[in-house]
Every structure is written in C-alpha cells, then in structure tokens.
Amino acid sequence: RDETKLSLERLKMELVESSSLVLENEQQRQRYEQCLDEIANHMVQA
C-alpha cells in the first residue's frame, strides 16, 4: 500500500515536471516565431 502511494507521488511529480517542460517549450516556440517575424519585417523594410 505504501508502495502504491509512493508510485502515485512519483507519477504526480513526473506529470508536474512534464507539464512545465511543455509550457517552457511552448514559450520558446512563441519567442522563436516572434524572432522570425521581426527578421521578416526587417527584410521587407530593407
């Protein structure tokens, strides 16, 4: 029974870590897209 509880706690921690990685990944993708937009705008202006 204790083992099940430990496994559930471990699983919960893994899910939290995974969620934060997904969020971080999404934020990086958005920054990358903004960067590409800025580069495209500079190229259009040139």
UniProtKB/TrEMBL annotation:
GO terms for cellular component: microtubule plus-end. GO terms for biological process: microtubule bundle formation; microtubule depolymerization. This is Uncharacterized protein.
